[in-house]
Sequence to fold (322 residues):
Amino acid sequence: MLAWDDHDFRVRFRLGKNVVLNLLEYIEDEIASQTIRNNAVSPINKLLLTLRFYATGNFLITAGDFIGVSKSTACLIVRDVSVAIAKLRPIFIRMPETESEIRDLQLHFYQIARFPRTIGAIDCTHIKIQSPGGPDAEYFRNRKGYFSLNVQTIASPGLKIMDVVARWPGSCHDQTIFKKSRIYNKLVSGYWKNSLLVADSGYANTQYVVTPYLNPSNDIEELYNESIIRTRNPVERSYGVLKRRFPVLSFGSRLKLETTQAVIVACCVLHNLACDDNDLEPPELLNMDLPLNEEFSLREHHEPEVGNARKQLTEEYFPFLN
Fold:
């Protein structure tokens, strides 16, 4: 690590030195080799190799050359370190739990565009994978025709990822993933009381999830749309920051499916660590152009749930905004 100044280190490993050293304290024991024989790779070099892999867009040979190990050894290191980082998820990826946390989150969302009661912006993004093979492989082929995981996240106003679901194949619809999630069950059970998630038109309007009007018919609905679109912008921005910081998520993964899932969650943990370090703008990429982030949002019609929050807000809240 001493070979690079702070800027060069961030460019190569996508995180600041202090963030990497703090992370190492959490996972060092888990990723340490069981023996010091045969020139075992040190925990810090395992971590740096993994970060270099995330930064180079899935080139295991390049990552392995970084510390002089074979491609197969590099693959095992990336797997083990990614799993160790992903296990930190309960610490660093979390929804609000206390009344104080809920109020603070609602206030910060309100300050974006005066949209009330919001505790998260939800959406999905596709992460390209190789075909997993087997009889179920085609379930992973998405509407664009390539294999992917459809990954659901919930973002905070500060772009932190508060929840991630990275197990569903690319053919699954956003609404299906949401209805099968732990977050959905907690919302329906009233865990967050009258709090809301803001979403796009890929989701249904309910008591707990609100989306824009596809065809607003009056000034109130126009005002509502303007407010909700700005309020849910953090989740879109978080994907841009996440994929620019870790190009492996833009180029796609050729690892085993289980390892790919661990890499995705690990990158989300690292993204939050960077946010906590007030590092919201990833450094430039070295001689690398990222593929365009494809837009999957559909203008779909879901029958609104009786008593849905969107109707209530446009009748009882937005008409009285000055």
